[in-house]
Specification:
Strand content: under 5%
Number of strands: 2
Number of domains: 3
Length: about 300
């Protein structure tokens, strides 16, 4: 597959994206960079179908960083619901405070400044710079890595993340800034809809004729098997169940309420509760009860 922002690759992918692009609310005109930032935080390791209804509630409730920063962090954790990895909610609240205090309620438009914000890693910084401001920066997630592994390198699976991922993505960007930003979104969409992990839909791929993996006969993956992240029975599941009890309560709860969660393994339940306390997602009140942060 050609590199260096090949015009035929860009034309094929962007032409496909013009008709295949999903109508996601954070892609619509008029959506603020702050709301795009919120969507990117929510979408980390969480499917679009679960994120969309919660995101829509959040943009109404917290239209600006200062609006979120003005509310207790416990409100943000409660509103996070079952999106998973609730520490993201705490970090987003902290980020909102920094944006309100230091950046006049404005999300920065460059990667380096974005990286100084709480909870903002390399992917999120690049995604916001690209999708909110149209910056010509490569944006690499799991979907993009899979497309590049197949189309550029002829491998069925991308393997472990490496420093070459950004260089590979950058080499494909069209030279025009506006086309580069849209190309990044299209590359991600291709991995989400067509070049999927299992049973890729190669017959629908706009890059099929240029794909190195296709040219090699779609060789099977020969490396280590992908690790499937379990949820059932893990500490993550128990943490979520404990947080559910606190989210559903209007006041701090007694220990006995939490002891009803996960009765089959009290040691695991205690370990999960201790980790929530350590992370600051749960607080122990002076009266010996448990509450979401700031609600004790």
């Amino acid at each position: 597959m050609p590199h260096a922002g090949s015009a035929d690759v860009a034309a094929a992918l962007l032409g496909w994206f013009d008709s295949a692009e999903r109508d996601l609310p954070w892609r619509r005109k008029g959506v603020s960079p702050w709301h795009i930032l919120v969507s990117e935080i929510m979408l980390q390791q969480t499917p679009v179908v679960r994120v969309q209804p919660i995101w829509e509630q959040w943009v109404q409730r917290w239209p600006t960083p200062s609006a979120m920063a003005a509310d207790p962090v416990g409100d943000i954790v409660r509103a996070w619901g079952k999106l998973g990895y609730p520490r993201r909610a705490m970090r987003l609240h902290e980020c909102a405070g920094v944006l309100a205090e230091r950046f006049d309620d404005t999300v920065p438009d460059d990667v380096d400044t974005l990286l100084t914000l709480p909870g903002i890693g390399d992917y999120t910084a690049r995604a916001v710079a690209c999708f909110a401001y149209g910056q010509a920066v490569p944006v690499v997630d799991t979907n993009v890595r899979r497309v590049i592994a197949r189309a550029v390198h002829g491998r069925a699976e991308p393997g472990n993340p490496s420093k070459t991922d950004l260089a590979d993505a950058r080499s494909l960007l069209p030279p025009q800034r506006r086309r580069a930003a849209r190309f990044s979104a299209a590359l991600m969409e291709l991995g989400a809809l067509v070049c999927v992990a299992r049973e890729p839909r190669c017959e629908n791929c706009p890059l099929r004729s240029q794909c190195r993996w296709q040219q090699l006969g779609r060789p099977a993956h020969t490396g280590p098997a992908r690790k499937v992240q379990k949820f059932a029975g893990t500490d993550r599941q128990v943490r979520g169940l404990l947080l559910d009890v606190l989210r559903d309560s209007d006041s701090p709860v007694e220990r006995a309420r939490l002891d009803q969660v996960w009765p089959t393994d009290p040691h695991q339940r205690m370990r999960a509760l201790d980790s929530l306390l350590t992370d600051g997602l749960v607080e122990l009140t002076a009266a010996g009860r448990y509450a979401l942060p700031g609600e004790g």
